[in-house]
Amino acid sequence: MEPNFTLESTAEEVATAFAKEIENKNVLITGTSLNGLGFETARVIAKYASLVIITGYNAERLRLSEEALLKEVPSANIRCLILDLSSLTNVRKAAAEVNAYAEPIHVLINNAAAPMGTFKLTADGLENQIATDHVGPFLFTKLLTPKLLAATTPTYTPRVVNVGSNAHHYAPEIDFATIFKPDKGSFNTTVAYGQAKSANILATIELAKRARGKLNAYVVHPGVIYTNLNQHPEAIPVLKQMGLLDENGEPSSARFQWKTIPQGAASTVVAAFDPYLDDKSGVYLVDCQIATETIAPHTSDPTRAEMLWNLTEEIIGEKFKL
């Protein structure tokens, strides 16, 4: 890739390098609370983009993000969208609002995720992790596909970026049966998170295949980062058990190399704007570089990707066709 970014590169450095690619683009980023990867992504993009749509399920937190972005980039065109990815009804409502916008969407960044925690069922009867990290974003992407395709030109193909994780290695193959019928008795927080991140990768692989060049899809592992997600009260005991946090709840470097939030958001910005990736839809990025070969075998299986796609269509009650 040119420039040659590394694990130490920041989102700001990437955005500066691709300023011309970001210009005149309308970008929608899910999960943009302060002290998170989505906010940092929005912050560096806002300096150049025509429109940045930020989302969150909490109106007050969303307002704080908007204020912080406009304070730093007064010229930015920021638009707020209430989006609760754990609710299919709310996803449909938010998508309808976006589809009523006059502008097309050039880049959709599915960044939002649920913190690791206890077993919860959503209003739709789904386990909260898979619902928020995979099923909700799948439906949102499906409903916004016409908006994305409207951004197509002879020289530009719209992009979908999914924020996954190397934590998919912590989970065995996705248990398709429990997606339909979540089982509290067999629930394991780490496995649930890993399976949700596996779903992000499988969905990206299948979207890239089905889009046949009409959309480009990428999935990224941002790294191990001390974001607001990892500071959630329910997540702290789990992360301590995994060795990510020490006894005081602070990041532990004993087993993992931590990144800063600016470093963590860098791969997302590469996936969203690096022209080198134009003909490489479906790849997995780690430390701003293509690392598809590092995906766990059960998460790179095209047969499993198709199975997950078909199952998710059943859950949302809609076919996702491009």
How would you concisely characterize the structure shown here?
The protein is an alpha/beta fold and 322 residues long.
Keywords, please?
Rossmann fold; 322 residues; alpha/beta; two-stranded parallel ribbon; single chain; 8-stranded mixed beta sheet
Can you walk through the features of this model?
With 322 residues, the protein is α/β, with parallel strands linked by helices. It has one domain: NAD(P)-binding Rossmann-like Domain (Rossmann fold, 3-Layer(aba) Sandwich), CATH 3.40.50. 41% of the residues lie in helices and 12% in strands. It contains twelve helices and ten strands. It has an eight-stranded mixed β-sheet with strand order 3-2-1-4-5-6-9-10, with helices on both faces. Strands 7-8 form a two-stranded parallel sheet. Strand 4, helix 6 and strand 5 form a beta-alpha-beta unit. It is globular, with a radius of gyration of 18 Å. The relative contact order is 0.16. The mean pLDDT is 91.
In percent, how much strand structure appears in the residues? Answer: 5-15%
In the CATH scheme, the class would be Alpha Beta
Distance between the termini: 29 Å
- CATH homologous superfamily, by name? NAD(P)-binding Rossmann-like Domain
Helix content: 40-55%
Structural class: alpha/beta
Strand order of the largest sheet: 3-2-1-4-5-6-9-10
Mean of all residue-level pLDDT scores: 91
> Per CATH, which architecture?
3-Layer(aba) Sandwich
Q: Radius of gyration in whole Å, from Cα?
A: 18 Å
> Biggest sheet: strands, sense, closure?
8 strands, mixed
Organism: Mycena venus
Keywords: Oxidoreductase
Protein name: Short-chain dehydrogenase/reductase family protein
Family: Belongs to the short-chain dehydrogenases/reductases (SDR) family.
